[in-house]
Write a structure and sequence with these properties.
single chain; mainly beta; six-stranded antiparallel β-sheet; four-stranded antiparallel β-sheet
Length: 154
């Protein structure tokens, strides 16, 4: 599960960003909002945060972010805080064993000496590029994991 916390500020054609909390309408689909968030795993590990950085700006309902994340912002007002929990299946999905595979080192670009934890770019049969993480290295093969980093994480 992912726990997300943020204060929200609404920016839209009807609501300039300089409006004060309490006088602004609630965020709705189609609004451009800026949010500060902290993504915390259930074991307490902070995975990512925008606090101390530029806030995340998104258009609600556009679908660029996790649906549960966007839905949680709808109805919030400037300065409001909220904590939500997003189950792994609704976040980045469950881990898939079929996305962990072994590759012959002869298929690597010449001169590449991968180490466990390295991120490599790979292209599948359909030509789609993906990032994989090296999980094991032997003399003749490497094992890589193409699961999203937060897949199955709670």
């Amino acid at each position: 599960m992912l726990c997300v916390y943020w204060p929200v500020s609404c920016c839209s054609a009807e609501l300039p960003c300089y409006r004060l909390a309490g006088s602004a309408p609630a965020a709705k689909d189609g609004d451009t909002v800026q949010v500060n968030y902290t993504l915390t795993l259930t074991d307490g590990t902070i995975y990512e945060t925008s606090v101390g950085k530029e806030p995340l700006e998104l258009v609600l309902g556009k679908g660029d972010y996790l649906p549960d994340f966007e839905k949680a912002i709808v109805g919030m007002k400037v300065g409001e805080s909220r904590t939500i929990t997003i189950p792994a299946a609704d976040g980045y999905g469950t881990r898939r064993d079929d996305l962990v595979f072994t590759v012959d080192r002869s298929q690597l670009v010449a001169g590449v000496e991968p180490k466990v934890g390295d991120k490599l770019e790979s292209t599948d049969e359909s030509g789609q590029t993906m990032v994989v993480v090296v999980t094991a290295v032997s003399e003749t093969t490497i094992t890589v994991d193409a699961n999203p980093p937060l897949a199955g994480r709670t």
